[in-house]
Amino acid sequence: MLALFVLYVVVEVAALVAVGSALGVLWTVVLLIGGSLIGSLLVRSQGRRVLDGLQRASRGERSAGGAVADGALFAAGSVAMFVPGLVTTVIGLLLLIPPTRWLLRPAVMWAAARWLPQVATATRRMRPTVIDGEILDDQVDDSTRAPNASGSALILEGQVIEADRFDPTAGDFRKPHR
């Protein structure tokens, strides 16, 4: 961890020295402040966009994997924006703009599927449970009510066609029977 921090400091100082010698100190400071301001605006606008994508994925209108990958890239870009330095600001800006996230999304999904196979398996098998049925009568018959302590309760009549058996090896997400 210490070696990673030392590498970060060396890279940032080298970048600042290179840009400072090429552009001058004043323009380097302007570049740093401008990058931070643009990054702040991007964090705000893209945060709303990523949140909207996650909400659309929860409604089934968009791929959940793509929305989560977008969220992970946005989070990494946001963190990079608030870490001081020229290189991290550039990395943060690149991760916050949509075209870069679109290009990196498959790599993030591949890495997540490779490093977290349980998550990939669970999300692949997770489907909504569909219960087929029909409404026979929408009128409530008072003769089917039985008295109880709170007044009356509706008695449901029916037949179990297929009962799921608990399989501990299947986990929480069992594939529904169709």
Structure overview:
With 178 residues, the chain is mostly helical. The protein has six helices and two strands; from the N terminus they run ααααααββ. It has helices spanning 2-23, 25-58, 64-82, 86-96, 98-115, 117-125; strands at residues 145-148, 151-154. The chain has a two-stranded antiparallel ribbon. The radius of gyration is 27 Å and the shape is elongated.
Which key features would you list for this structure?
178 residues; elongated; 6 helices; mainly alpha; 2 strands; two-stranded antiparallel sheet; single chain
What's the helix-strand series? Answer: HHHHHHEE
Number of strands: 2
**Number of helices, where a helix is a run of at least 4 consecutive DSSP H or I residues:** 6
Based on CA atoms alone, the radius of gyration comes out at 27 Å
Query: How does the helix and strand content classify structurally?
Result: mainly alpha
Strand order of the largest sheet: 1-2
- Low-pLDDT runs of 5+ residues are none
Whole-number average pLDDT?
79
**Most strands sheet:** 2 strands, antiparallel
The oligomeric state of the chains shown is single chain
Query: Outline, from the CA principal axes?
Result: elongated
Strand % is: under 5%
End-to-end separation in angstroms reads: 51 Å
How does the SSE layout of this entry go?
Blueprint: H1 2-23, H2 25-58, H3 64-82, H4 86-96, H5 98-115, H6 117-125, E1 145-148, E2 151-154
Antiparallel strand pairs: 1-2
